[in-house]
Flagellar motor switch protein FliM (Kineosporia mesophila), 306 residues
Amino acid sequence: MGYSNQATSTGRRPRAGARTYDFRRPVRLAREDAHLLKVAMQTFGRQATTVLTTSLRAVSVLSLIQVEEMSYDEFLTGLPEASICAVMSLEPLQGKALMSLDLSTLMVMIDHLLGGRGVDEQPERQLTDIEQMLIRHLMGRALREFAYAMEPIAVTRPQLLTLESNAQFVQAAAATDPVIVARMQLVMGERINTMDLCMPYAMLQPALEQATRSQDRGEKQKQRSAAAAKTTRRLNDVEVDVSIRFDPIRMSSSQIGRLAVGDVIGLGHRTSKPLEVTSATSTFGYAIPGASGKQLAALIVDPQEQ
């Protein structure tokens, strides 16, 4: 017995495309947190651009490429062999952060700082004590701009702890711990370099959660205020019935039953007392009767005034 492939295919919903998931790199960084870090790193790039240009006396641009999450071991494995890691503390955040630059880039910076032209041919050796002091001073200025950029996330006091020529010796996190890496591009004249800023996720997590909660509270407050203003505008446009009445009196059923045309009912409302202006049994004003042209009218008055 045959069957129709067409009927079978049209009776099923198309499946969504498969997505690759790396179980060795579970996604921990929320989209909101990634956006906060991206904005902070872009701000740091703009601020550091001014510092580098004025310090090196050469047009320099530091810009963000991307913010990504990986394990600490993957970060270390991806570093160039000849690279220098600046180990930093970000008090009051717990832990250590790393700023990595290749040795040749640092040599070009030192050449500029000492009045040179920053040529590509630089010696391949470790930094001397004087060269380390020059780099420490330059990074100290850059870290002040980093603190400014991080203010939307947390108020930090960055401090350069040491310069390491071998990042494998820096125990900033366990090999499998997740870290947040900001890949940045450094342009000095015609030379294009890369700079990596690595921060353990455990260091940033409390500050990111607090910043996200504060942002959510601010956003929700704005939404509530906008909803309240919209409701107020709509309520102001709603038409309601308004009555102007004398003081009510009480009558027995027999009195009401004996009423006839021509009978006079004493209201007990003094002639000097204004009438009540009401809506839905609520009194919100007082008025005295009068006329406006050929129509009855009421003049709103202050009941305290005689």
